Amino acid sequence: MSWTFDAVDGVYKNHALSTNLRHTAVADSHFFRFLSPEPGYGKGRGDTITITRTGQLPLATRVNESDPLPSGAVPKSVVSQTVTEWGYVVPVTELEQNLTHYNLRNDVQRALKEQMRLTLDKMTADELKTTPVRARTTTATAISITTNGIFSGAAQVELNISHLREIRDFLRGTQKTEGFQGGQYVGILSTNAARGIKNELTQVTTTASQVHYGAAVNADRIAGSLSPLMNGQLQDIEGFSLFETNNADALDDTAGSSAFGEAIFFGMDPAFLAMVSSPELRAGVKTNLGRFQDLGWVGTLDVGLTWPEAADARVVFVGST
Question: Can you give the pTM of this predicted structure?
Answer without folding.
Answer: 0.85
